[in-house]
Design goal:
- By secondary structure, the chain is an alpha/beta fold.
- The chain contains 12 helices and 9 strands.
- The protein folds into 2 domains: about 210 residues, Spore Coat Polysaccharide Biosynthesis Protein SpsA, Chain A, CATH 3.90.550.10; about 80 residues, no CATH class.
- β1, α1 and β2 form a beta-alpha-beta unit.
Length: about 300
């Protein structure tokens, strides 16, 4: 079993994120090859990794590639090295000793699995991660909350999506679905898009209840809420972009649903203003519309430039 752990790093010295992340992987009961793709950090992250983790494969980008493109670089490297599974882990997250082992068990028990993710806790293990909670609601992960309340929790639950802070993905899934879409998604949204494509291609996404990770992002939530307040006016402006879609009700409906969902979660999405999110989503759905005329298989595959 050949497992590669992929971590995108960017100024990860804060709160000892890099050390906690890498040390946890090195202590895992399942030995993995660790690949770090650094997005041109300026806080000493590169030097810290080079000095303290010489056993880790470090790829230093010439620019900040963003989450999607940097992960694609790592995933491609892992596939060339004959990885059976790729484990994506955020730099501000860390695993338990048995996390990867338990995720592999879910794969063994579910032949339709494409992605398996653990329960995401906060950095102090006192609560569920606030972003992870969004994926447990009944329309996304049916029966989870009820089963938890009635003390009948199963080992795993089929879900429509879960954030990519900790994803174990099979090679079979990657070879069918491809990598993250970098034509639209730079940072945030790429995991939701990828989840949709995984399900489209006949795979399932599971949340494993038998193991956990910690995701330490409490400081970022406050920063994002501040940025949200600065862009309230853009919420009113973004509806402008839907006018272009008036003649295609099906595409327009999908665009609006996606847009409303993103606006509701924008305190977790600081990179784009609401207006830019709307514009990017519009461009994305128009591309999907065009691609479906040419390709009945659907989904998106590797895009040019991911190895830059």
């Amino acid at each position: 079993m050949n497992v590669f752990s992929i971590i995108v790093t960017y100024n990860g010295m804060k709160n000892n994120w890099i050390q906690k992340c890498f040390d946890s992987l090195l202590s895992s009961s399942v030995v993995t090859e660790i690949v770090a793709i650094d997005n041109k950090s300026t806080d000493g992250s590169i030097e810290f990794i080079q000095k303290n983790y010489p056993q880790i494969k470090l790829i230093v980008a010439n620019e900040n590639l963003g989450f999607a493109k940097a992960n694609n670089v790592g995933i491609k490297y892992a596939l060339v090295q004959e990885a059976d599974y790729v484990f994506l882990l955020n730099q501000d997250a860390w695993v338990e000793k048995d996390t990867i082992e338990k995720l592999l068990t879910i794969f063994e028990q579910n032949i339709d699995a494409g992605i398996v993710s653990p329960i995401h806790l906060n950095g102090s293990k006192t609560m569920l991660d606030h972003g992870f909670l969004d994926y447990l609601e009944r329309h996304n992960t049916p029966h989870f909350i009820s089963d938890l309340f009635f003390n009948r929790l199963k080992d795993c639950y089929d879900t429509k999506s879960v954030n990519a802070a900790a994803w174990l993905i099979s090679r079979r899934c990657i070879e069918k679905v491809g990598g993250f879409d970098t034509s639209v998604f730079y940072h945030y949204g790429e995991d939701d898009n990828y989840s949709q494509r995984v399900i489209y291609h006949g795979f399932k996404i599971y949340i494993a209840t038998t193991t956990t990770i910690c995701h330490d992002r409490k400081d970022r939530k406050k920063e994002r809420s501040i940025k949200l307040e600065k862009h309230e006016e853009d919420i009113q402006k973004c509806i402008y972009y839907t006018n272009i879609l008036e003649n295609d009700k099906k595409i327009k409906r999908k665009f609006l649903i996606n847009l409303i969902t993103k606006i509701a979660k924008l305190d977790f999405r600081p990179i784009f203003t609401h207006k830019k999110i709307a514009k990017n989503d519009l461009e994305y759905y128009l591309k999907i519309k065009q691609s479906r005329k040419k390709n009945k298989q659907g989904g998106l595959v590797w895009l040019n430039g991911d190895n830059d």
